[in-house]
Amino acid sequence: MPSGREPAAPQLSAWRFITTFGTISLLADFVYEGARSITGPLLASLGATALVVGVVTGVGEAAALALRLVSGPLTDRTQRFWAWTIAGYTLTIVTVPFLGIAGTLWAAGALVITERIGKAVRSPAKDTLLSHATAVTGRGRGFAVHEAMDQIGAVVGPVTVAGVLAATGDDYAPALGVLAIPGVAALALLVWLLLRVPEPAGYETARPHATPSVTDAGHDARGPGRAPLPAAFWAYCAFTATTMIGFSTFGVLSFHMVTDGILSAAAVPLVYAAAMGADAVAALASGWAYDRIGPKTLAALPIISALIPIFAFGGHVPSVVIGALLWGAAVGIQESTLRAVVADLVPSPRRATAYGVFAAGLGAATAAGGAVTGWLYEELPGALLAFVAVVQTSAVAVALGMAFLRRRAERSPGTQRTPG
User: Rounded to whole angstroms, how far apart are CA atoms 63 and 102?
Assistant: First the structure.
C-alpha cells in the first residue's frame, strides 16, 4: 500500500474474508498434512534409515520456523503481503505431488524440506492479512474459526491418502498425485480472494469509532517496519516459549503408546485424528473466551500442558487417549489464541516481523521441550512430571508479568485500552 493513502474498502465482509481464508487453509492442509502423514514410510521406501528420516524432517521443521525470522521482516519492508502469501502456498502445493514420483532419496528429501520452506515464506504475511479482518470480528474468534477450518483439512488429507494407498497397494504416486486437486483449488481461491480484497488493512482503518490503542504505539520516525517491537510482546514471547519447553510432542506420546504395547502402530493415526478434533474445539473455545475476558484465557495453556504427561504416559488406553486429547487442545490454543494476541500487542507496520520472531521462538522452545521431555521419559521418568510442573508454574509467573506490562502500556498517555 503506498504511503499516505488510506487502503481501499474491502468488497467482502470481515467474516467472509476469514472463512474464505479458512477454506484456503483447509485445502492447503489437505495437501501438506496428507503428505506429511506418510513422509517417513515414503523416505524409507527409497532407502532412508531412521536417522535420515529424522534429519530430513527435522531440518524441514526448523526451516518452517527459523526462516520466518527472514520472511517476516522482508514482508514488512516490502508491504507485499499477498505476493509472499501466494508464493509460499505455491511452493508447497507444487512440491507435494512430485514427492510421489521423486524416484531418489535425495530428491524426495529436498522436496520435503522445500514444502516446509513454503510455510515459512507465507506464514507471517498470511497471519498479518488475517489479523486485519480479526480487528472487526474479534481477534480470538477470527483466528479460532480459521484454525478450526484448517484442522478439517489436517484430518481429511491423511485419511484420503490412506484410502488411496489401500486401494492401490501402497503406490505413493497416485496417493500424493491426488493432492494436486485440492492444491489447485486452494491457489484459485487465493487469487479470487486477492481480487476481491487487495488491501485487507482496510478492515482496520474502516472500523467505526476507531480509536488509538496500545497497538498503535509502534509508529516512529524510522517509518514502517522499523519501530522496535513493544516490551509487552517480548514478555509474551517469554511466556509462550516457557510453556513450550515443558510441552511434550506427539512424537514422544506416540512412542510411549507403541513401545509400551498400549496401542498398535495402526491405531496411532486414529488417536492423532481425535487430537486434531480436540484442537479445533479448543481453538474455538479459547478464541471466544479471549475476546470476552482477554489474556487471562491463556492461563489455561500451562494448566493443560501440565496435565498432559499425567495422562499421556499412563499404562492404559483410556489414559493415553485423554492425554492425546489434552495435547490436541493445547495445540489448538497455540495455533489460534496465541496468534491472536500477537496482533493485539504489535502495530500493523511491524506485525509480520513479530509473527516471524514469535514463530521462531516458539519453534526453538518446542524443539527443546521435545528433546528434554523425551530424555526424561527414557532416563528419569520419575522426574518428568515434576519438571513439567515447575516449567508450567514458571509460565504462569511470566504471564503475570506480561499482564502487568500490558496494563502499564494501556495506562500510558495517548493510548486507550484495546478491546478484548
Answer: 21
Q: Give helix 105-137 / helix 81-99 axis angle, nearest 10°.
A: 140
What pLDDT, on the 0 to 100 scale, is given for residue 402? Answer: 62
Q: Is 118 exposed, middle or buried (0-12, 13-18, 19+ CB in 10 A)?
A: buried
Q: Which of 97, 169, 133 is nearest to 17 (CA)?
A: 133
Residue 128: name the closest of 187, 88, 186, 183 by CA. Answer: 88
- Give the Cα separation of 87 and 282 in Å (integer): 30
b/e string for 228-249 if b means 16 or more Cβ within 10 A?
ebbebbbbbbbbbbbbbbbbbb
Of 99, 30, 112, nearest to 63 by C-alpha is: 112
**What does the block give as the cell for 206?**
474502516
143 with 287: CB under 8 angstroms?
yes
Q: Enter the C-alpha cell of residue 289.
A: 473466551
Of residues 320, 324, 332, the one with CA closest to residue 281: 332
384 close to 308: Cβ distance less than 8 angstroms:
no
| Helix ranges restricted to H, 67-196 | 68-78, 81-99, 105-137, 139-168, 172-177, 180-196
Cell matching residue 113: 524440506
132-179 pLDDT per residue, tens: 999 999 989 999 999 899 889 988 888 888 888 888 888 889 989 999
- 121 Cβ contact partners less than 8 Å away, ≥ 6 residues apart: 67, 71, 84, 87, 88, 91
Contact 218, 346 (CB under 8 A): yes
Model pTM greater than 0.90? no
Q: Which DSSP state fits 295?
A: G
- Rounded CA separation 154/25 (Å): 9
Name the CA dihedral angle for 122, 128, 134, 138, rounded to a multiple of 10 degrees: 110
Amino acid, res. 293: I
- Smallest CA-to-CA distance from 324 within 389, 263, 386 is with 263
Alpha-carbon distances of 385 from 47, 309, 328, 366, 390, rounded to whole Å: 38, 7, 19, 17, 9
Amino acid in the structure at residue 105: L
62 has a pLDDT exceeding 50: yes
Which H or E run contains 377? helix 351-379
